[in-house]
Design a protein that fits this description.
The chain has 147 residues and is mainly α. The protein contains six helices and no strands.
Amino acid sequence: MKTWYVMLAIAAGAVLPIQVGVNSTLRHGIGSPIVAALISFGVGTVCLLAYALAARAEWPTAQMLAKLPMWAWIGGVVGAFYVATAILVAPKLGAANLVCLTIAAQLFMSLLLDHYGLIGFAQHGINVARIVGALLLIAGTVMIVKY
């Protein structure tokens, strides 16, 4: 693995609980988890647009968009579900519990996606080492959530 990508993945993971805390504060300030998620996505959209314009990103053609599979369009829906759910759940569970549960769910879904090579991922079969690693993560999750 390239060090840069590993560091970037770690940084992305590290900012998720920060995002949850910031969005939760936004929710408490305005009173609505859905409106807080909408504001969060609006700010993110403006930032991504500014970056795309500054980087002179190439925009897709209509033909490129038409060739995409239908499931390629649900990324925003999934992101909105996660952000809205995190805003709603974080105050009840706390940052550590929320992150543990979401990471455990991400790992198991990732194992399935890799095993079957779904939605554009290369196929990487489930093996004993991956199962043991997943079980250790579950054990850690149970310890953090329960205690």
